[in-house]
Write a structure and sequence with these properties.
The strands form eight sheets. The chain has a 22-stranded antiparallel β-barrel. The longest helix is centred in the N-terminal third of the chain and has 19 residues, at 2-20. With 882 residues, it is mainly beta.
Length: 882
């Protein structure tokens, strides 16, 4: 009888389901965590179909079912999958946390599609930018990562030509060109800019993260381990992967802020709109962003203006301990029809304006083929400032044009274009991804408020100084398969890549470069022009297997062949062992490489630089130039590296996670830009070198060379804890990085012409840029409390000691460690509208003031180290979402 009853009940439900099939039904609901906080980006699908949608910023979703009583399957990274019967038209679905609340499945570090950040054999940080961006004081990707990733550092530079307009960044204290940037897992092109103004990353070419609007990014994955064997050149320090937004809905944000000194005003406006395409997981997501940042001025003392100019004694009163320095007399200036700004130094952050757009889409063509595309455009205008030319500098200043001297302006236009397009195929159990990625960065220079002294009164005061550009195109094919039944899971991936690159320098107008050129930034001349190409071919294989339920082992190998310097083979071995369910041990060993960029091989120019306290014209020369050959400068070759890491993962509680990773990175034949050759170690001219360089229109010269070997040792610690507190949720996080870079005492292959001048060829200044210019220690402690309509963020970040040697001349100075406090308060007026008030560097902390010898006669009050020279920044933000 019971058996008959069971059969009858089953038959009844089958009948009901059959009769209801084809009757479309709309269901609405909200996805919540265990504390009732809405969860966005959850995937809600109807079991037995390919219909799915995503929850919006308020956790809400709407789905149309062909079944009257469907089973809804809800998945979200870090949460247990839920299956819920869709009996009611409006339903709340509570998502319980998995054992690891930080259990995001990641793209980098492992090609296994089922590995979370805590299960990989190497450390991976995940920043859920879509969730936290509205409550952080920072708006650019560089600034956000500086405060969220312990081993990432970036700060703005001043009076540094193009480097003022693209902030150099470093991971684990290495160069901007030793970290690979991906977008949706595809290689991103670098900028066309070479950092050569003795800033962090001197002589390197990085990737401009600020060319991608932060409002278009869903999350950022930072792989903190060498990965050249997996991803190719540049991945010596690690990989940063930007995963773009794919959600449906609309969001708008407006932010306005200013520093405590009433400058550096920022305006950020961004719009993001996403929609589903079809019923099989297709989507389109579009972002538009406008960002304007005004200049800041942090000069030492705006009264310190002029030297040895008796003609100006009526306007100046003696001041300071230097008898040659005069201080401004405002009354006398006004009587003469002058103003203080006619004489002031402008030292600080450049003015930057960005207009950007980005799109991310995926369109299923059928059950087995998806088309996808990701791309954008960024148009940036920047205004920076060079060293002020004083009226007393009669060899630089045309008095009839600038009777009070002048401070040159460097105006840039940076255009960045990119497009990723491809197809994903399902071939049985195999997956094939074929793509093409193209990107270009173009940097155009205009110089204003300056003169070409050689042209006298006929000199223009504005010059078109030329441009440089870099184009990269990558064709990629990746094949992968996951074998569930082999061992405890085996993932096999292999692929091939073809990459072509083009680098160009184009000359400016004649007046910008002739006979010494425009003061501060002489334009590129026809002799500087470059149009060079190269290509490379790479193949790789990557195998990762759970040998047992406890032991994971990965092996990767990559072969690359470059048309301009040869080939290389690199490998990686990684492993992770689960000692218990809550305690893992992980580690990796790998070899790596970085190909010399086309920029480093062919960039050349003439610029005004501070050399041993003097403003001189200095040239950067190509390694294939006649002057390089005369001096015995060798041809560039690739950098090679060996990476070692071992780490621990410990989760003693369900919501407490602790990771600690030790690492060592050895780099041989590291490419550097030499010091200004032409003076000896005491700053005195070397006649034979000066005579040689004079034939090229400069006093000193610099070259790219594989001069050094370095060793980097360090540790990263990340602690994250979620807890219920009252009616809300409190997240506590502690991040710490210790990093020690050391340059080997012996330089590589010093040319005979510079034996005995090692401290000029690669001197204390260049050495300190690598060894001590980024903090050895950096730590962050943050508390984020969400309760009902409120959200509170309090974050303290410690930037450790920085030691600078000889910039722009002078002596060694140690800058003590500092703590920066961030505070934001957010309130949801309605479920759709949120207001945020807050501050970055609430307590107005600055680096130590520079000693006089390092401050260019007292002008540079602060060095651009640690937290930079902005000081306290206060902001207000309004967010609206649908």
């Amino acid at each position: 009888m019971k058996k008959i009853l069971k059969i009858s009940i089953a038959a009844f439900f089958i009948l009901i389901s059959t009769l209801s099939f084809g009757q479309n039904r709309k269901l609405k609901g909200t996805i919540l965590n265990e504390k009732g906080i809405p969860l966005d980006h959850a995937t809600i699908s109807i079991k037995g179909t390919k219909i799915n949608v995503s929850s919006d910023n308020l956790g809400k979703f709407t789905i149309v079912s062909p079944v009257k009583i469907p089973t809804l399957v809800v998945t979200l990274y870090g949460y247990s999958t839920r299956e819920v019967m869709g009996i009611e038209d409006n339903i709340n679905i509570i998502m319980p946390l998995e054992a690891n609340s930080l259990d995001e499945v990641v793209i980098v570090g492992s090609r296994n599609p089922k590995k979370s950040k805590l299960e990989t054999a190497v450390p991976v940080d995940v920043v859920n930018l879509a969730k936290i961006r509205n409550i952080t004081p920072q708006t650019s990707t560089n600034d956000i990562l500086t405060y969220l990733i312990p081993s990432f550092n970036s700060n703005r530079q001043s009076s540094a030509d193009g480097t003022e307009h693209i902030d150099p960044a470093s991971l684990r204290g290495l160069g901007p060109d030793q970290v690979l940037v991906l977008v949706n897992g595809k290689r991103r092109h670098t900028t066309s800019l070479v950092n050569y103004q003795n800033t962090v990353g001197n002589g390197s070419v990085g990737t401009d993260l600020s060319a991608i609007p932060a409002s278009a990014i869903k999350r950022i994955e930072v792989l903190r381990d060498g990965a050249a064997a997996q991803y190719g050149s540049d991945a010596i320090a690690g990989v940063i992967n930007l995963v773009m937004k794919d959600n449906a809905g609309f969001e708008a944000n407006a932010t306005y802020g200013s520093t405590s000194r009433n400058d550096g005003q920022t305006t950020n406006l961004n719009l993001n709109y996403g929609a589903k395409i079809g019923k099989n997981g297709g989507f389109v997501n579009v972002t538009a962003e406008f960002n304007n940042r005004e200049k800041t001025n942090r000069s030492q003392n705006n009264n310190l203006i002029i030297f040895d100019q008796s003609a100006y004694d009526n306007y100046f009163a003696y001041d300071f301990s230097n008898d040659n320095a005069r201080g401004l007399d405002d009354a006398a200036l006004a009587q003469a029809g002058l103003k203080r700004d006619d004489f002031n130094f402008q030292i600080g952050d450049a003015k930057i304006k960005n207009i950007q757009g980005f799109v991310n889409l995926s369109v299923p063509l059928n059950d087995k083929i998806d088309f996808y595309a990701t791309g954008g455009v960024s148009h940036r205008n920047g205004t920076g400032f060079g060293f002020r030319r004083l009226p007393s500098e009669t060899e630089n200043v045309v008095a009839s044009l600038f009777p009070n001297g002048f401070q040159p302006e460097l105006n840039s236009v940076v255009t960045d274009l990119s497009l990723i397009s491809g197809f994903k195929f399902k071939l049985g159990d195999w997956k094939l991804d074929v793509s093409n990625t193209i990107g270009q960065n173009k940097f155009t220079y205009d110089v204003a408020n300056t003169n070409n002294f050689s042209l006298g009164a006929n000199s223009p005061t504005e010059f078109k100084a030329g441009n440089h550009s870099f184009l990269q195109n990558t064709v990629n094919a990746d094949v992968s398969r996951f074998y569930k039944s082999v061992f405890s899971g085996l993932n096999v991936a292999f692929g091939a890549e073809y990459r072509s690159e083009n680098y160009q320098i184009n000359a400016g107008e004649v007046a910008s470069y002739s006979n010494g050129g425009a003061q501060s930034f002489p334009g590129f001349s026809p002799l500087n022009e470059v149009n060079k190409n190269r290509n490379s071919v790479g193949i790789y294989a990557d195998v990762e297997s759970d040998i047992t339920e406890k032991l994971l082992v990965g092996v990767a190998a990559r072969y690359e062949d470059y048309s301009d310097f040869g080939n290389t083979i690199n490998g990686k071995l990684s492993a992770r062992y689960k000692v218990t369910d809550t305690f893992f041990v992980r580690g990796a060993v790998s070899t790596g490489f970085r190909a010399p960029s086309l920029h480093q091989q062919y960039f050349n120019n003439i610029a005004t630089d501070v050399v041993d306290g003097e403003l001189l014209n200095s040239g950067i020369f190509r390694n294939d130039s006649d002057v390089a050959k005369q001096l015995g400068i060798p041809k560039l070759k690739e950098e090679t590296s060996k990476n070692y890491s071992i780490g621990l993962v410990f989760s003693p509680l369900k919501k407490l996670h602790i990771t600690a990773d030790f690492y060592q990175i050895k780099i041989d034949n590291r490419i550097i830009l030499t010091g200004n050759l032409g003076n000896d170690a005491y700053g005195d001219p070397v006649p034979e070198l000066r005579a040689l360089f004079a034939t090229y229109g400069v006093e000193t010269g610099r070259f790219f060379t594989n001069a050094i070997n370095t060793t980097t040792n360090g540790i990263d610690v990340v602690v994250d804890y979620d807890m219920n507190l009252g009616a809300g949720n409190l997240n506590l996080s502690a991040l710490y990085n210790y990093n020690h870079n050391q340059v080997a005492a012996q330089l590589n292959a010093i040319p005979t012409a510079f034996v005995g001048q090692e401290d000029v060829y690669y001197g204390p200044q260049e050495r300190s840029l690598i060894e001590t210019n980024t903090p050895k220690s950096k730590g962050t402690f943050a508390a984020n409390y969400a309760v009902k309509k409120w959200n509170f963020l309090l974050r303290n970040t410690y930037f450790g000691t920085v030691t600078r040697d000889g910039f722009p001349f002078g002596t060694t100075q140690k800058h003590a460690g500092k703590v920066v406090t961030d505070l934001t308060i957010a309130y949801k007026v309605t479920p759709k509208i949120q207001f945020t008030l807050g501050a970055n560097n609430l307590l107005d902390v600055f680096p130590d003031k520079q000693i006089y010898e390092n401050s260019y006669f007292g002008v540079f009050k602060y060095a651009p180290v640690q937290m930079g020279t902005t000081g306290a920044y206060y902001f207000a933000r309004m967010s609206f979402s649908l």
